[in-house]
Records
---
Amino acid sequence: MTTEDLSILGLTLRVAAISTLLILPLGLAAAWALARWKGRGRAIVETVLSLPLVLPPTAVGLVLLELLRRSGPLGRLLDRSGLELLFTWKAVVLATAVMSFPLLVRPARGAFEEIDPRLLGLARSLGRRPATVFVRVALPLAWRGIATGIVLAFSRALGEFGATILVAGSIPGRTRTLALAIFHRTQIGQDGAAMRLVLLTVVLAFFTVWTSEILSRRRERQLRA
Amino acid sequence: MISILLRLPLAGFRLEVDVRLDAPAIAVLGPSGAGKTSLLESIAGLRRVAQGRITIDEEVVLDTAAGVRLRPERRRIGWVPQDALLFPHLDVEGNVRFGERAGGAKQSFREAVEILEIGPLLQRSPANLSGGERQRVALARALASEPRVLLLDEPLAAVDVELKSRILPYLLRIRDEARIPMLYVTHNAGEAETLAGEALLLRAGRVEAHGPTRDVIAEKMWAAIDPRARFENIVEGKLGASDGSSPAELRLPGGVGLTVPAAGESPGRAVFAVAPDDILLSAEPLTRVSARNVLAGRVLSIELSGGDAMVRAEAAGITWRALVTAAAVRDLGLAAGSPVWLAIKTQSFKRLR
């Protein structure tokens, strides 16, 4: 394990964590809204939100790139506010956030939908405002689905490649995450060094999923006890 | 005082109610699917499409014409649904405290726990409660939120529920001690008469009858409307102490004493049920008979259905229902107004709590 390996790991973890934290409030709000909204247009919104799941990541990356380039609609806004985004670690965060968003929303929405709406109505009739009901009833009851979503989103962020390389490039020490570094090393013939990173990702993925399994089992036991 | 003017589309029909309810306790009767639950949910503010005007103690909680639709959290209504709907992620104490008001009376939690006798259950999870316990916790939770009105939906299985799971004794305490007005959905005529002076009979979304409970139940042939209806004699009184082997005395509010099974460890206020077919009728005074309770009374009405006759009779300040054969009624020459003697064995009194 070299210091370069470790710094790549550090960058990847940091980016994945920030991206997951960033989409958490937005994703939960979207999941909650979709679960409670029975009106028309719901299917379309759901489809649009799920697009990053089915599109090639490079396609999503290109769309982001077009939006964010200096002459693009969002790029102009960014330029004016003096925020440099493209080809920085922030661009990596953005790319992973967009790609992992639907993976957080889907399981969370499913978990919210399983809550008996009468239970939420009852909580309100006990004098609690909707926001309080969300925090004290909906969140704890949907905990398992939300945890699954967080794990999926975080794992996806760890391995994001296609969208990242388009908006952030593969700049050593700045935007080269694990997935990008593995690709880069095989390209320059350092298969052994790439393999070390592969092992790192395996360990990382294993602990992420394992931790979530343990947490959700403990929660299940609590609810059943 | 609750006044309700309500229109609510339901599957197959429309709920249309226009009533003013005054009694401290009101029984809501009617067959399954008549709209009883929807009525309660509309009052609680949980039916968004409800149209009309509802006031509670002069406060308008719904007035669609004026654009008023008070949010459920502002209505201060204690809703207890059929399936109790406890929060599965909270223990019993967490459930009961959920609705505690920030500026509310500090003793409301204690009082709710005491009235519903759930002290020993506080640390339990809802998954480990029996049906009756769950219902009591749901009631305590509603009470602790200091509601202006309680809306109670009879538990689904209540018609055949075990004696110790019956919720009625607790409702009587809430009515008399906590003094919170309540609407109680029930299929049990005896419970309705005991608890509520006023009753509302719903059928296919319409108010079929509204008035004093005994009139609604007797005159409108409630049994014919609600196939799940259950008639039961419910007596409430003060139970004297006994050593646990000999029978105890239940003193009725009117002063008459009844002989009932041994009190065990809990004398004091008690509620008993007697099945209508456990009461023997006689057209002459009974003197030498094994039944420990013989009451002189008067027939109020007789309802015939097939070979059976439901005889309503007044005795010891209580309206009793006795189920006998139509032939027996004929042989005894019973009719409304005629004197009658009721014989009830000690063991026919089943204690509800």
---
Amino acid sequence: MEILKIVGIGIVATIFIVILKNTRPEFALYISLLTGVIIFTMILGELSYVIQTLNTLARRVNIEFSYFSTILKIIGMAYIVEFGAQISRDAGEESIAMKIELGGKVIIMVLAIPILLALMELIIKILP
Amino acid sequence: MDIDLIFKIAGLGMLTAVLHTVLNKSGKEEYAQLTTLVGVVIALGMVINLISKLFDNVKALFRLY
């Protein structure tokens, strides 16, 4: 039962964080970081199954493969950016979290530009 | 899984808190700060390995090269 493990880890970590928050806030930050990493690592196995299924589906309906891999990259980047921003927000650094999110948005925009260009070309082709 | 790392870091935190209090009470403030610093560095060394492993996994899964 994966879900019981995840919830149990979360509860134990929360108790530790509450204990340590008054005396040593820096260790509370480490524990929350570590809990995030462990839960994410547990989820990754399930996520790889989902991605394989999506992969076979995309191959079956004959989408151009570069578009699919771009979408996959954007999803992965969004996960990482969310993780980092959440950690900085937990530590009380709202401005750094905003900067991380800004960086993620810009890089995702750069990745998405080829799709945007293809769309524009299609529109121009359809218009007389 | 490496859940015992959470217990390790929690124990380390409590130990440093106690050491900090004892050293502070006996009037050795600079040693108290030093113990806290060492504890933080040890915890960082434990955590940073796992973070790099996580990032490698995400990179491999989503093909972010």
---
Amino acid sequence: MTPDAAVTPATSPVRVRLPAPLRELAQVAREITVEVPGDVTQRSVLDALERSHPALAGTTRDRASARRRAFIRFYVGEEDLSNASPDEPLPPGVAAGREPFVVIGAMAGG
Amino acid sequence: MSTVRLLVGTRKGGFVLTADAKRQDWDVQGPFFAGWEIYHMIGSPVDPDRIYASQTSGWFGQVLQRSDDGGQTWTAVGNDFTYHGDVGEHLWYDGSKRPWEFTRIWHLEPSLHDAGTVYAGAQDAALFRSTDGAESWEELTGLRQHSTAASWQPGAGGLCLHTIVLSSGQPARIVVAISAAGVLRSDDGGQTWRPANRGLLSGGVLPDPDAEVGHCVHKIAMHPTTPDVLFMQKHWDVMRSDDGGDTWREVSGNLPSDFGFAIAVNSQEPETVYVVPITSDSQHFPPEGKLRVYRSRTGGDEWEPLTRGLPQAHCYVDVLRDAMSVDGMSPCGVYFGTTGGQVYASADGGDNWVAAVRDLPAVLSVEAQTLP
């Protein structure tokens, strides 16, 4: 076995819950599962989400800057992770598949 | 027998209206993309069943949709509108400098010759082109990097490129309008640009009457048989150019207000022009509460009100810049949508109007297609 063949990237099946407009756009159910390679972070989850559902590219974060859109929030359980670093590991329950990474369209508009 | 299809973009979704050649009874389908702002829907002149839609949201950003079956089904296509090279800065409302930042696509303009080629006008002002049916986009950077661009300042709706006119006479000529930079023209397919604002008066707004840029152009219309003749609804004034935008002269004539947004040219009569006067920039509704389309059959200067079938009392809607269109039939059908959600249709060049539909969300755009 060559060293290269031994490197099989581990992936984690991560549950992602989407708001209604994005579910309709991607034509998926409320919750989907994406395979996330390596560390499970906001960035790696969103990268995996956009890879598997290209229609969602740019809808949760800006295409050019990759910054979270102003009216988008990210939650795990009751924890608001919207302002956490995109490269910070998400709570272990996400990688373990026990709880979903939740994308929310913030309430706005009066 | 021909049919007419209206592509209607609204604040809360897109709608497709169809009627037979009489253009009296309209079938309404939609909303497509419910809840999203549909800034513009437009079909390819080469393949009318290929329709592009700009779908935007303050929450979820920009999505581009394409239909290849006349609006029955849709596919989300490319939405990567990345500014290329040095992003640069423009002026903000307060005079400070602000980096270019993409917000949305205001207007789509399919090629006159190739169903796969389409142009997109962006906020902040930039022009993008796709040659693969909107799957991918490339910025024509010569516009945003024009020597005057650092002095461009947004209009009330943002620094938006809202008008793209592809010349039917010269394939390499593109005319765009940006609020509030003005008109810029390219004669080499979008590689290089020059301002085309000579004669535009912006008294009270710009101290310099000969300012090269800084004009608040609202919309430009062209008849395909007379590509050098351009009609413009400006913030104030209706203007006309007979030399492809090299020079402009005012043709507001006897209009009750020369403020407005929309302008269109009759498909059968190149000198017949339509505008919808709006009271002023602070009163975005028709003068006297009467919704009147004004028609000039003399290429401007002399205007007549068209009122039959339109509300003539207590009407306080607006008609936005992309919300008027004409079909290709004879007599010409004229259509416009209002911020009150009505889409009005005239099958006789504007003499008589009916409401094709009354209670849509605020209408942002109307495009008419004539189908065989």
---
Amino acid sequence: MVARWADTVLRIGYTWTGSMQDAQDVSQTVLLKLLTSPRRFDGEEQERAWVLRVAVNCCKDLKKSAWARRRVPLESAGEAAVELPEVEDSPVLRAVQALPEKYRQAVYLRYYEEYEVEEIADLMGCRAPQVSTYLYRGKQKLKIMLGGMYGQQCLSE
Amino acid sequence: MDNSAYRNELDRIRYTAEGRAALAEQLMRAQSAERGRRSVRWPRKMMAVAIAAAVLVGTAAAAAGPLWERYFGHLDEGQQAVIDSLSATPETLPAAESNGTVMTPLAAFGDRDFYYLMLEIRAPEGTVLPDYGEEKGYYQLFGDVPGEKISLMDGDGQELYNNREFAWMPRTGEDNVLTAVLRLWPAEGVDFSDGTDKILHIPGLWVQSPDKVYTPVLTGSWDFNIGAHSGGVESRTPDVAGVTVESEDCGTMTLEYLRISPLGMRIRYSWSDPVEGVWPSAELAVVMKDGSEVSLANSVGSAGEDWSEAYGPFDTPVNIEQAAAVRWGDAIIPLEAD
């Protein structure tokens, strides 16, 4: 289970929070939840959808200080716990991470997870037209940051 | 370069072998610790039930805050005071029984724009309401046909349009009991705190399968008059004349209306240069006197070609006496003290 989902949740956590430390916290919380509340899924796609939803909610909870975290404090696995590509080797990733929060989340869900706009709206807790706006503006900003055809092609439909 | 560039770069974020091993070990230790906590869960739930009983017999005001921490998480003294000042009294919200199932309001509070109801659903003794994992479905307080919907009506039987959402609380350990928190937000023109009758109707309990098939579990009719109390803290409608924010695509956004209460906010704004398919917005938050900000937990609204109206609740109640301003994008709207 760790092998199957640890990296996925790490990427969601990093995209949402912008912090690798917070991403690791999210990863631990979600995987612990999966371990301690076992579920049966009809397939990997359904399991992935569950993991994604729980991870997104966990990122929201991390941001909202009101909700107490229901997890055992875990010791850090040390500095060698995760790999992150070098800045110069990941221009698109850096540009997406520089987007405003809502644009970044919408871009991740559309172009990495390949969700439809309505599904993204449900996950983000907003209306579908807002998602369309986030995607439109996100791509506009990426065009500017990445420049010309590169910016347009990197997220082509 | 094609659209896999983003995917390829993001895929390079991963745990190292050492990181995975350490993570797996820590999860195993945490899982053992979680099992240990579960063995003492029942006494804590009994304490929660005892607190709820204290609410019902009228020592409520001081206990309402801790009870709501089960839903909101930690509440400071100011937030608890807000809830206490807005709480309904037990006499105004008696339990309702139908077909052997008793629904009991454990606590309730609201202001003009938002209303929270913590509701215990107790099926007849011997009924087992199993835990459903998300792969099997969800409990819902409504079915999928007319007549099986939650409704809110005035004293004349007219439906009052409102948004509603609810969350299930952790189980108490009793197989025939569920606890839900309903959050209601009315459309403009409906005031939860005006003291007039507002009958909340719950049609029962269903299970919704992942492919949206509804199966009834408990059916009947449970009604609660949630209008029979008045909110303690007035909403504020600060002067927003001249408040504008520049949008990226649609020109200048002009704020036309803002209302803030301890439980949420409502705004209406317009923009100068409409673009088809684009609805501009600006981040909305309350700026507290200590510099922290509180955002809306969710929002709904309506929009036209060049205007939008949105409203929604805060994540947790806000001690509005400690609110300094509202931030809309980079515009600051001071909140004058009453």
